[in-house]
Amino acid sequence: MSVLEERLAGVIPGLREEAKSLAKEHGTKVISQVTVSQVYGGMRGVRGLLCDTSSVEPETGLKIRGRPVKELVDCSPEDIIHLLLLGELPDPVTKRDIQADLAARREVPENVWKVLDALPEETHPMTMLSVGLLAMQGESAFAKAYAKGIRKDEYWRSTLEDALDIIARITVLAAGIYRKRFNKGPRIPGDKKLPLALNFARMLGVEDTSGEFADLMRLYLVLHSDHESGNVSAATTATVNSALSDLYYSLSAGLNGLAGPLHGLANQECLKWVLMVHERFGGVPSLEEIEKFAWETLEAGKVIPGYGHAVLRVTDPRFEAFFDFGKKYCMQDEIFQTVVRIFETVPNVLRQVKKIKDPWPNVDAISGSLLYHYGVTEFPFYTVLFGVSRAIGVTCQAVLARALGMPIIRPKSVTTQWLKQEVAKKD
Ligand code: HAX
């Protein structure tokens, strides 16, 4: 039994008891109301989901298990997995155990590569990631255990197996996709002695004599891992998982949502916009030039990628964490300098557009410029990196949902006719 399984087995009875008594003693208390605007507004602010791994408040941004993400910038993905599942960072011995456990799981079956080989050459890497994951579905420990007929209160154990297998395997899959899709040469075998992020950086094959790129990958995997459960990738994964579909099915669905330009694809779109600005003005533009370009983008009816957020009303702390990294290592880079200038200008522009609720940068406004600096210049791959990281958070969320025996997700929809009748009653 893995150290994570052993520790979770120790805490789950208490979690179940807590949930049971909350529902029993306070089951009828109202915690949120829904307005007509929220029905038409993507359910913003409707509190109806449970997520203990992390929270995102408008004025503070991401906290993982109550810890501001900026306090976690020196952590590894192994630390974060322990934190997400158990609420505390691991001691060094436990961390080594998690590292060894994940390393032992880094096998992608041969048939997966054959499936990817059969796709057209120009297939988007996010499609390859999602297809590759689905091609592994037959490996699901949960699906096998369910077919055998296990007890409901044991579902979490095989879900944990799937979660850890997927977190380990998706790094191999993503690195293989990078090498294949962008003609980087044969896949680079992993090294079982290395921690997850360093091994991932090595398998990508990016030249990295300074070790800075590997450190960026570690930070990248930490910062994108979790963002509570209402965002598209997390909510989709959770909804599909709630039907007792295993995590291969569920995460593949979540990744398809991450592939949208209003969500994970924004990092690809954002760097495109930054490069366009840089090219248009023949170098690092002045603040006035950026302001002009920003207005042109808005007047053309387009969004400025990397700015705004459905929940946040401050600069995304994940942006700040990447900003600190860039200030340390990339200040000489013109593209990074352009990102800094944009940050100094665009919020002032967006503040003048009344309908925009959040003029501040989100994580996607900067992540691409750092990847670009280290030679990962293939934008379509950026969302894949986001997906590798997001897999950590949403699979851990799924383990806890299974532990609590959460039911199938099934909110109620209403018709326009019903809405009209309801508002007439209130007049
Ligand atoms: N540029 C131009 N217009 C913007 C904008 C931006 N950066 N941000 C918001 N708006 C517009 C919206 O398109 C919307 O316009 P309409 O009413 O005409 O449709 C209006 O302002 C109100 O939007 P909002 O309430 O402020 O924001 P939403 O909650 O609806 O949307 C988004 C949040 C992140 C989707 C939005 O800010 C956006 O499109 N930003 C650019 C894309 C982006 O950076 N996405 C990544 C977000 C982080 C993430 O999830 N990463 O995975």
Q: Your description of this structure?
A:
The chain has 19 helices and three strands. α6 (125-135) packs across α8 (155-181), α9 crosses α10 and α13 (266-280) packs across α17. The protein has a domain at 266-373: Cytochrome p450-Terp, domain 2. β1 (54-57) and β2 (61-64) form a beta hairpin. It has a three-stranded antiparallel sheet with strand order 1-2-3. The protein is globular, with a radius of gyration of 22 Å. The protein is 59% helix and 2% strand. With 427 residues, the protein is mainly α. N-hydroxyamidocarboxymethyldethia coenzyme *A (HAX) binds at residues 231, 262-264, 266, 298, 303-310, 355-358, 362, 364.
What about the largest sheet? 3 strands, antiparallel
CATH architecture of the domain at 266-373: Orthogonal Bundle
The low-pLDDT segments are none
The general outline is: globular
Q: Beta fraction of the residues? A: under 5%
What is the count of DSSP helices, taking H or I runs of 4+ residues? Answer: 19
Class per helix and strand makeup: mainly alpha
Text of the CATH class of the domain at 266-373 = Mainly Alpha
H/E element sequence: HHEEEHHHHHHHHHHHHHHHHH
Mean pLDDT: 97
Strand order, sheet with most strands? 1-2-3
Summary, kept brief:
This protein is mainly α.
Fold topology:
Layout: H1 3-26, H2 36-40, E1 54-57, E2 61-64, E3 67-68, H3 77-86, H4 92-104, H5 110-117, H6 125-135, H7 141-148, H8 155-181, H9 196-204, H10 212-223, H11 232-242, H12 247-258, H13 266-280, H14 287-299, H15 317-329, H16 334-350, H17 364-373, H18 382-403, H19 416-426
Antiparallel strand pairs: 1-2, 2-3
Helix pairs in contact: 3-18, 4-8, 5-6, 6-8, 6-12, 7-8, 8-9, 8-18, 9-10, 10-15, 10-18, 11-12, 11-18, 12-18, 13-16, 13-17, 14-16, 15-17, 16-17
